[in-house]
Amino acid sequence: MKLANNIKYFPAYEAFNNIQIMAPIYTLMLIAKGLSFAELMIVQAVYTFTCTLLDVFSGCLSDRIGRKKILIFGQILIIMSLGLWVFLDGFWPAVVLKAIYGAGMTFKNGADVSLLYESLKYMKREKEYEEVKGRADSYMYVFASVECILAGFVFGIDKNLPIAIAAILSLINLIFIVLFEETNEHEQKCRIKFLSELKVDTKYVLSNIKIIKIIVATSIYYFFIRINFIHFAPYLKDMNFKIEYIGIIYFVANLTTALATKHNNDLYMKFKGDSARVLHLILIGAGFLFVTGNVYLFIIGMLVHQSFRSVYMNIVDLEINEIVDNDKRAAIMSYKSMILNLSYSLLAPIFGFMAESRTNYDMYVIYLGLILVAFALYKMIFRDKKGKVAYNN
User: Fold this and answer.
1) Whole-number Cα distances in Å, 235 to 67, 239, 291
2) Domain ranges of the chain
3) One fold for 1-189 and 193-393
4) How far apart are CA 145 and CA 275, in angstroms?
5) Helix 129-157 / helix 246-261 crossing angle, nearest 10 deg
6) Nearest 5°: phi and psi at 36?
7) Which residue, 66, 82, 139, 265, is the most exposed by fewest CB within 10 angstroms?
8) Would you say the C-alpha torsion 87, 19, 275, 210 has a positive or negative sign?
9) Number of H helices, E strands in the chain
10) Who's near 180: CB < 8 A, 6+ residues apart?
11) In 3D, which of 209, 291, 306, 319 has the Cα closest to residue 255?
12) In whole angstroms, how far apart are CA 33 and each of 61, 90, 113, 144?
């Protein structure tokens, strides 16, 4: 049966889909290509805004034209953007090509896992979904870890080499997508009623204090997680850390995340109703390690920061799954993502301009101060009658 190929090739697809060869040295790479910190943040904001805007249409297009076709289209956009970026430097090429890259990633978002689930469902093996997806994720983390180790070394050879390798990996991934078989389970008719649905979802969110708490706390976490990441490599370089070895830090973080994600449900049950407090302590603890001025303590902070990045977001999704009505779950997940991305798109350029006249250490001090203020306000606003801050009160 041809649909069996979808299960057979999905782990390989997942491994080549999560490109990490640029991640550890991303900021240094953009600076080397002629961007200032302010321009870098604008590029990130454009990328995030593009993903947010097109996310409204991507699921509908996937339903309308088919999972495989939208995956191919998205992958071609990714390959095109990376291929051109190898040869183009400067701000405006980065803006345009990063937007194209974001479009490609967004069009693929959700279509791949839908193809896998629908294939298993058609074969009456849908109960194997978690097992197959989990196996694919393990391939992804292993492959990503190898890419991270190589990142600093290949960047040391040439600033464009990580982008070229990413383009080649994306081209290989296109081959696996072509080998997929369309399921024909998608709906041929699809209407986009974004504004009316947004109004309904907003009304639903505002009527549920538990969801408001989740979105507010997660927005704080998401913004500072991303903004801290931008300064990792430049600050390590300021402290005379060999950039060739920075990928090893990300390798350890990926390994820790891979192990932790296997226990997402256990972690959720352990911190259930108290996720906000755990979030506060982790982010603030990492922030204090960042401002010690000691390279080894900074690296420990990085490991904590990166390891809990994915784990926490998974726990948040489990929180939402439990408190949101079944017919609203997908909509509220999308609503949460929209709020996170829009807030980052609006605020990131402001901090980029701030970083122009300040050192990386200065920015970490500013971020720590703002984190403390943000969480103090969160605690003040959402404290319950017993004085406890938690989602499920």
Assistant:
1) 42, 6, 11
2) 1-189, 193-393
3) yes
4) 28
5) 170
6) -85, 175
7) 265
8) positive
9) 17, 0
10) 5, 6, 9, 13, 67, 68, 71, 115
11) 306
12) 34, 6, 35, 24
How far is C-alpha 19 from the chain's CA centre? 12
Longest dimension (CA), the chain: 61
Give the residues of the chain that fall short of pLDDT 50.
387, 389-393
Helix/strand/coil percent split, the chain, to 5: 80, 0, 20
Contact 172, 48 (CB under 8 A): no
> Nearest CA to 228 among 307, 316, 312, 305?
305
Q: 114 and 207 in contact (C-beta within 8 Å)?
A: no
Q: What is the residue-wise DSSP string for 205-268?
A: HHT-HHHHHHHHHHHHHHHHHHHHHHTHHHHHHHTT--GGGHHHHHHHHHHHHHHHHTTHHHHH
DSSP state of 180: S
The length of the chain in residues reads 393
Provide the pLDDT for residue 260: 65
Q: What's CA 384's distance to the chain center, in Å?
A: 31
Contact call for residues 142 and 18 (beta carbons, < 8 A): no
Sign for the pseudo-dihedral over CA of 15, 109, 80, 251: negative
Q: How far apart are CA 393 and CA 388, in angstroms?
A: 9
Whole-model pTM: value is 0.84
CA distance 390 to 393: 6
Cα separation, 148 vs 307, whole angstroms: 14
Residue 159 structure tokens: 């600033």
State whether residue 194 is helix, strand or coil.
Answer: helix
Q: What CATH class is the domain 193-393? A: mainly alpha
Q: Superfamily assignment of 1-189 in CATH?
A: MFS general substrate transporter like domains (1.20.1250.20)
CA–CA–CA angle 225, 299, 23 (5° rounding): 55
